[in-house]
Amino acid sequence: MSSQPSLKGSSFTLSVLQLDNRDAEQAIEYLAAKIAQAPNFFRYAPLVVQLDGSEHQVDFETLKRGIEALDMRIVGVTGWQHEALKAQIHGAGLATMQGGAATSQPTPSQAPSSHANKDAQTPARQSAMVVKTPVRSGQQIYARDRDLIVLGAVSNGAEVIADGSVQVYGALRGRAIAGAQGDTEAHIICHNLQAELCSIAGSYWLSDQIEPDYWQQPALISRSQDALQIETLQI
């Protein structure tokens, strides 16, 4: 196997900030409010800025500084249609991107919102990772290229992540992220839903978006047409 570096095409799940009114300060305030709801989920997250295709000016310098101050990183800017605007983007030290139109997400979560290339091809699954002990606050478990099964509880402040599905056979009080590399067929199953955040392939809900009827109940969460859906499990 060659030890030399190489460049390859790939697809990743990215947050897309839809900037319709070109107000950089308003966009920064919006992101700050979302980050306050789930700070660890957004910390150092990559972000694509989606313009609306108009010629209105954007203060890209202010936008870049404000977003970086929130510990997010702009990967690039898309939706520009004029060379003059492209030059302004480059002048602010930002990359320009083609395509990657955003799709709507469940409100009010829109984040780390609509995502580019969410339906990325996923590698062949390995056997599931099984965690037999509770996942404590501050812990993060990541099942790369496989499902994750947790036989105990997931505490507040803990995070369980899988490229496949996530199953929690105790109370899910922390954050559960399934389909981390874009698998829209992934799901989240838990025996007691009290999650801080549930995410599948970029679409996500915070705790206040989960309807009360499903709270503290056995639940199955899946993704359909860029939105999450939930049903009660009979266990």
UniProtKB/TrEMBL annotation:
Cell division inhibitor that blocks the formation of polar Z ring septums. Rapidly oscillates between the poles of the cell to destabilize FtsZ filaments that have formed before they mature into polar Z rings. Prevents FtsZ polymerization. Residues 7-72 form the Septum formation inhibitor MinC N-terminal domain. Pfam families: MinC_C, MinC_N. This is Probable septum site-determining protein MinC. Keywords: Cell cycle, Cell division, Septation. The gene is minC. Residues 101-114 have a biased composition (Low complexity). Residues 97-129 are annotated as: Disordered. Interacts with MinD and FtsZ. GO terms for biological process: cell morphogenesis; division septum assembly; regulation of cell division; regulation of cell septum assembly. Residues 130-231 form the Septum formation inhibitor MinC C-terminal domain. It comes from the Bacteria. SUPFAM superfamilies: Cell-division inhibitor MinC, C-terminal domain. Belongs to the MinC family.
